[in-house]
Every structure is written in structure tokens, then in C-alpha cells.
Amino acid sequence: SHAKEILHCLKEKYFKELQDLEVDGQKVEMPQSLSWYPEELAWHTNLSRKILRKSPLLEKFHQFLVSETECGNISRQEAVSMIPPLLLNVNPHHKILDMCAAPGSKTAQLIEMLHADMNVPFPKGFVIANDVDNKRCYLLVHQAKRLNSPCIMVVNHDASSIPNLQIDVDGRKEILFYDRILCDVPCSGDGTMRKNIDVWKKWTTQNSLQLHGLQLRIATRGVEQLAEGGRMVYSTCSLNPIENEAVISSLLEKSQGALELADVSSELPGLKRMPGITKWKVMLKDGQWFEEWKDVPSNRQTQIRPTMFPVKDEEKLKAMNLERCLRILPHHQNTGGFFVAVLIKKSPMPWNKRQPKVHQKLPQRTGDTEVTANSDNGSECVTEEQTLLENEESKKMQELQNSETEQSKKEGVCGPPPSKKMKLFGFKEDPFVFLPEDDPLFLPIQKFYALDPSFPKMNLLTRTQEGKKRQLYMVSKELRNVLLNNSEKMKVINTGIKVWSRNSDGEQFGCAFRLAQEGIYTLYPFIHARIINVCIEDVKILLTQENPFLSKFSNETQKKVKDMAMGSIVLKYDPDPEKPDDLQCPIVLCGWQGKTSLRAFVPKNERLHYLRMMGVEVFKAKRKEEESENKTEEEVQHSLAQTEEGMDVEDKEHDLVTKMEAEIGEESSHSPVESSAMEVENKIEDLDQSSDNANSHVNQESKDTDTSNVKG
């Protein structure tokens, strides 16, 4: 419902304002919706970054984009990279793995699809977003955090050997297979030639030859973890067949019929596409071409592998249906170049003939010779090693299970993996500690907010094993299952959504924890007390004034507040269908009731978002907002700090990170991303505060500070 309101706001206000604008003597082109993206939810503008940032006439539009991006209501992304999540056909109950997820735009799309129904606080599905680069994982956290979902977990592994996870199914452990896998592999990026000037200087055929083996290993690992009947999308922003059709045909060949390419020609109508190709040659850096593997001299056989060539057998080639792959060319619809293939798994992979159960030894691989003959050293290695690993795992599993189960029963603690290798890079993550069922901390919270008996308190976790718990986070029960059963083998960077924060002021009113805006839409269905229904005028007062007196609110609101004890409250606005000009989507805000005043605890960008949606004309009110904006920002920070004496180190770290991100700017190409994440990390490490690693929950939640340089 919020997306529809933003779309309405864009079309009726911002785009109309751009209609007759001229910048530097040129008429501004109107943004256009992408015809192939469902429900007009994606738009394209030809305005360059420079013009958007520098032109005073576009300042309001730019601020709108920045502010809404920070709230997680808009994502700015290359048009073609929106395609893979759409072709995954995600449903809210799907278990999804995003294998190479950073910087996180596609992950955000996946999370959005899980929460298709806003009335379901905990969808049954989840997204596990992985990246091999520890620094880029924090960027991923930042992107995902904007969407406030309890169903996302960020992990840090090499995608080509990402471990098998286990889940508890009716008391027995089973290997987790994913319904959907997004395999957007590292690539040469030659499809980005329009926007990435470096491609022209640095391009060589060697890039693809070096990446092919890794791409095939990652894709192979992906299909191994895919459930039967599941769908995996393989994509690259390259147009080189060595990185694309060669990987897919090799994967199809060694799958021996277990995989097939899905025909998606009827999906995304309006998207111009070319079919996949079936013939190509392989070229060395020095310009030598080879049509077949047998032509490659032995001294070149380490650079060129047999899997890089097209299949010669015409019948086999026809059965592969390589033309079902999608090639998006830049000049067809003014985008980047892109390749997508959609794979369906019909049966287990031949080297995993039975879907492996934890207690079984895996059978010997069938068709060994054929697989090895047709795979490069790398991918042969993956399948064999995997089988060996799984065999070893099954032997060790019983001991592991016993100790783990005991540990989690006692404490509900999921520590970081013990392996020293894991700690060689990145932060040493704090453990995820689930609240014990009899934790005395929870009773006053339950009583104060009159939580529903169905509230899943088992899913509450903290990041501290000792000392005062300062923040409470929440995950879905499915992610809890994953966390508790895999702490030994998984490096989790971040999971959970913040739902309560400790507030020392609150203790005297019966509850030491105040509600957190990030988690309010997840919590709201379970709260039965401390709710005040407010009219639209009240909401405007709450969002425009810092600490308004009760006398400023409507009589109904004053009456409701009168009998309520001081402390944290929920402010709820329900749309009135009889007033179609008013905001037509529900709003839930966290607030604080004082002796004589009522205030909202809402981050600045979110405040601006709700005001825009309520028709507080941003064009006309922008000056007014701008005058108060600097003031508002300082006041919001200052007064929040005053009112919430319990606001802890984490929030301060989070402010620092957001400001740093603002300075660094946003660009999703590799090196800037890495350096920004690195700077963020280094500065956080320097803080060295008491909640050392709470920052992985907070350090990327960009909420309270103005980040007009971050996006744009």
C-alpha cells in the first residue's frame, strides 16, 4: 500500500513539476516507466547524476529520491539487474539463497517479494544473502536493513563451497534445500560498457577465461543446494559466451537431465531480448582463436578448458535449448548488457543421486568418467570434494548434534564458527543469543504492552551473552531454526530486526524497553495495549513538531492519553475510505507519552516520507521543511538522546556510520563499494565501545541522519 502511495506521489507531484523544466538550456526529459516491470513500479530517468545533484531546479526531486531511498521505499538500480529476481517467481513461503548478494539491490527485491502481504508479519520463507567479501557484506546489511524484515540473514562464505545447512524437521535434522536460488556470479562486467569507462581500457579476453571456472563452480554448488522442482536464475552483466552459455551448457551436460532451461519467453512482456547462442569460439589474449578443445595446444590447456567450448553433438545441443537463455543488448532499450538463464531442477544431481540425509553416507557418484571428462579441474573438484565433505560431515554429525543441541537447549546461543580460518578476515561477530523461555526480562514487556499469547517470544534474540541486554531483535521461526542448527559451520554477519531498545526512563513506568520504529510493523499485530488511534491532523502535528503539548491534539486523542501511564506507545493511523483525498495506507508510529506532551520517535527520512504521502506539499512546504530541516535533524538527535537516556552506544555508532556513508557516496561498482565498507568498518572498530559488535546490527541501518550524498 505504501508503494502505491509513493507511485501516486511521484506521478501526480514530482513528474508533473519536471514537465516544463529546462536545465542548462535543455528541456528535461520526463521519467518513463519500464514497460516490462510489473505494476509500473520501476521508472527510468535520463537525468545524469551530475545534473540531478547540482541543478537547484531539481533539488527537491533529488532530495525526494535520497530521502525515500534511505527509508527503503525506493531503490536505485541498473534496470537490467532488476530482471533476475522477477524471473525467480518468488512466493512468501519460499526459502531463498542469494549466492553472491552484495551490494544488495537484488536482495532487497527478494525481501520485498517475501512480504507481498503486509498483514503477515512473519512470512514462512526467508532470504539467506551471502557474499565472499567481508567488507561488502556490511554494505549488504545496510541495503537489507532498510526493508525492516525479520526474514533476512547475511552470511559470509565463498559461494563455490557454501556449506550445506541443516534444519530441524519434527525433531530430526535434515539438509536445507532452497526453493529459489539467485546466482548472480562475479563476471568481467563487459556489459556495463556504457556507464563503466574502465571496461574499454581494461577489457581483454583473458578476463572471461579466468572467471569461467569460478562461475561454473558457483553455479554447480547452487544447483546442488536447490530443491527438486526449485528454480535457479544464473545471471551476469557480461555478453561473453564463455561466462554465459558455456557455463550453462557445461552445467546441463554434467547434470545428465537433472536440470532443464525454463522457457520464460512469455514472462516480462515488453522486455526486448535476444535468444541464447549455440555457436562460439574461444580466443586467447594474443588473438588466437580456437573452435574445439582438441585444437588447443597442451601449453595453453591451463588457460582454456574443455567446458568453454560449445557442445559438438547436435542432438545434445538441441536438447539443451540454449536459445531459452536471455541476452539483453544495451541499444535495444537503453540499458546495460545482461545475460540471464532460468534453470529448473527435475531430480537430484547425478553425483548426489539420493538427496543426502544427514545420517546417511552419500552413495558413490555415477557417471564419474563422463563428469570428469567434461568438467574443468575446478568444477570436478567441487563435486568430488563436496561428496567427501558430506561423508565426513555425516560421521561427525552425531557428536556435533549432541553438543549443539545441549548448548542451544541450555542457552539458545549461536556463536560464531570456531575455525581460526574464519577469524582471519573481518570482524569477530558477537553471538546470537536467543532469550530463554523463563527470562525475567520478558515478563514486564509482555505485561506492559499486553502482548498476545501467540507472540513468538522464542524468536527474540540479543547480541550479548553477559551484562545488560540493551537491544532486543527478532527473527522468524524458520530463521531461528537455521541459526540454532548451524552455528558451527556458518559465519553469520547479521540477522534480525530491532524491536525493543532499553530505556532507563521507562523503568519507573513499568517497562525498561521502548518500542523501536524499525520493528513496529512486525510487532504491531501482537500488541494489545498502549495503542492510540490518531487522525491525520494529529499525525501531521507529531511529525512536524518536536515535542508537542497534549493540548495541540484532537479531543479524542487527549481523552485516550488521559488514562494511560507514561512511557512508550504505539500511534496508529487508519485510512478513511470515505475521504479518498487523504492518505490511503495505514501508518504505525512509535511514540513516547510524557506528563504533558506526546511525541513520535521516527527517524528523519521516515518523517519526511509520511509527510509527503499525507500531502503536506513538499514543493510548497519544502522551504519550510528546509528551514526546520537542519534544526529538525539536530533536535531529533538531541531530544532523542535526552528522552532516551538509555539510547546506547549502538545508536551512536549507527549515526557515525550513516554520516560516513554520506561522505563516501554510493556507487555499486566494486572498488568504491569495498573502500566505503572498509572505512566504515575501520572507524567502527576505532569506537571500541562496550557493545563491540552490536554495530553489525546497527552499523548499516541508515535512518536518522541526512544522507543526501549517499544516493544520487
Automatic annotation (TrEMBL):
Q: Where does S-adenosyl-L-methionine bind?
A: C100, A101, A102, P103, G104, S105, K106, D131, D158, D184
- Active-site positions, per UniProt? C237
Residue limits of the SAM-dependent MTase RsmB/NOP-type domain?
1-346
Q: Does the keyword Lipid metabolism apply?
A: no
Task: List the protein's name.
Answer: tRNA (cytosine(34)-C(5))-methyltransferase
InterPro entries linked: MeTrfase_RsmB-F_NOP2_cat, MeTrfase_RsmB-F_NOP2_dom, Pre-PUA_NSUN2, PUA_NSUN2, RCMT, RCMT_NCL1, SAM-dependent_MTases_sf
According to the UniProt record, where is the region Disordered?
351-416, 624-712
Q: Where is the composition biased (Basic and acidic residues)?
A: 624-637, 649-662
Q: Which GO terms describe its cellular component?
A: cytoplasm; extracellular region; nucleus
User: Which subcellular locations apply to this protein?
Assistant: Nucleus; Secreted, Extracellular exosome
Write the lineage as a comma-separated list.
Answer: Eukaryota, Metazoa, Chordata, Craniata, Vertebrata
Q: Please tell me the species this chain comes from.
A: Lophotis ruficrista
